[in-house]
Amino acid sequence: MSEVAILPAVNAFLQREHGHYINGISHPGQGELRPVVNPATAQQIAQVHDGGDEEVQAAMAAARQAFTGWASMPTLSRGALLLKLADALEQHREELAQLETLCSGKLITLSRGLELDQSVAYLRYFAGWAGKITGETPELSLPSFHGEKYRGFTTREPLGVVVGIIPWNFSIMIAVWKMAAALVCGCTVVLKPSEFTPFTMLRVAQLAGEVGFPPGVINVINGNGGLLGPLLINHPDCAKVTFTGSVPTGRAVGSAASALAKPVTLELGGKNAALFLNDMSTEEIVAGIIEAGYVNQGQICAAAERFYLPAEKFDRVLEVLCQRLSSLQPGSPLDEQCQLGPLANRAHLEKVSKLVDQARSEGDEVLCGGGSPDLPGYYYLPTVLKVRSADSTLMQQETFGPVGSFLAYQDEEQALKQVNDSPFGLAASVWTHDLSKALRYSEQIKAGTVWVNMHTFLDPALPFGGIKGSGNGREFGSAFIQDYTRLKSVMVRY
Ligand code: NDP
Asked: For the chain, which terminus, N or C, has the lower number of CB atoms within 10 Å?
């Protein structure tokens, strides 16, 4: 097994002084230096300056100033710039993928095939909305006394400066979802990446400048979320907040924005479920569980963590699953053959370990994994928990790691109730060859997205977002339009 050679462009980028991208210029800033650590080695690879009030003021002012010109630019020209940025990401695919893997520990194959290729696809999808964001011309009912007539129509106006707060699990793709949606609607953006993955969006913003985005349209500020988040959200020029991340932080962001009557999109995790029916073979169930719960070490907000299996197949499925998961060798995520990379950061590793230890101490049975291999990075072995009941802590609490909690059921209706017995509702899946049951159950499952015989796949044409404690608002499809524009009604007497 061997690692891909780090490109000279990546090494050169890491050696530069880093901070923020404001008004079309890379600014290191003078804030405290924060180490950026490669989670596969636990070694520092670079540093980044933290931003503070000064950077927030500068970025918000740049975005506000750029807004008027950007919003009045011909819509197809905005779309054309998004297409050029997609081309630039394609040209810099390997460079950005390596940078992503070095900062997040994501397998290089996933960084290329998911993070970069999907970002390109989403940019092109949103570019296609240019010229198609329209209002309506309803028929009015006002009475006419002297022959006068009335015409009413609606237009969709961009909201203004959008603050996007980004997590570390998909540092480019999630930022692109928010940024491209806002930009095609005519908004400008200030993005706050996670402090663990501060570099990729700096590079994407530079590329945007190179392909012709006007200064101030895309700004990136790095630093501590607890400090920068409130500064950005409370800023008078912030017209909207869009956030993806953990439930507690999302709730704080939601409360802060709502207190100021600012629209907010929250895409939070939860505790997604996967229900397998008895007509699936053991082999199909095992493959489905791995797809649903263990890709990217479970660090996907839509990944399943609660698994409901038919009692008849329960023991055999878990036996084969453990064999399969235990055969995955942890290694360098820069190795194209590697199938098991590290978790994204030390704090997250500690959180996952603690939750599994708690489950163990409460009487759940760890069938495989349940610890870290003897490696310097932040690795955690794929873990299978046979939980003692639906009340087990890990049937309720998100680990966001490679930890599946498994429960056997005798009765499908009973299992369906357990799937819905959660304060969260981002996503779920049902697995069966019985199309009638698949459709009936997908209607009954309370989640923003229900997959049948698949899990975690997203498509730009299909809206994505949660219900209950998993957030509000929808990304993609046509649903994003109402999140980044406001309706204006115009009425004319003639
Ligand atoms: P957070 O949800 O806290 O962070 C997400 C983003 O919010 C980051 O950019 C973060 O900045 C920022 N942020 C932090 N505090 C605030 C605040 N008060 N106001 C505004 N923005 C803020 O996730 P963490 O990175 O801290 O990870 C904690 C746990 O969350 C993980 O262990 C994981 O379980 C879960 N998680 C879930 C995700 C999901 O998509 N569902 C994604 C990422 C994590 P900064 O990085 O500087 O703190």
From this structure: C
CATH code for residues 8-268+471-493: 3.40.605.10
Q: How far apart are CA 233 and CA 242, in angstroms?
A: 10
Q: Distance, CA 243 to ligand 1 centroid (Å)?
A: 9
The CATH homologous superfamily to which domain 272-459 belongs is Aldehyde Dehydrogenase; Chain A, domain 2 (3.40.309.10)
Task: Please check the confidence at residue 491 and state whether its pLDDT lies above 70.
Answer: yes
Q: Of 68, 233, 81, 23, whose CA–CA distance to 160 is shortest?
A: 68
pLDDT of residue 269: 83
pLDDT for position 443: 97
| String of DSSP letters for 332-360 | -TTBTT--B---S-HHHHHHHHHHHHHHH
> For residue 366, how many C-alpha atoms fall within 13 Å in the half-sphere facing its CB?
19
267 is catalytic: yes
Can 291 be counted among the known catalytic residues?
no
- Domain coordinates of the chain in residue numbers? 8-268+471-493, 272-459
- 345 Cα: distance to centroid of ligand 1 (angstroms): 12
In the predicted model, what is the mean pLDDT of residues 90-98?
98
The answer to whether the predicted template modeling score (pTM) of the entire model surpasses 0.85 is: yes
Q: Which candidate in 185, 187, 238, 301 is catalytic?
A: 301
Ligand 1 in reach of 111 Cβ (< 6 A): no
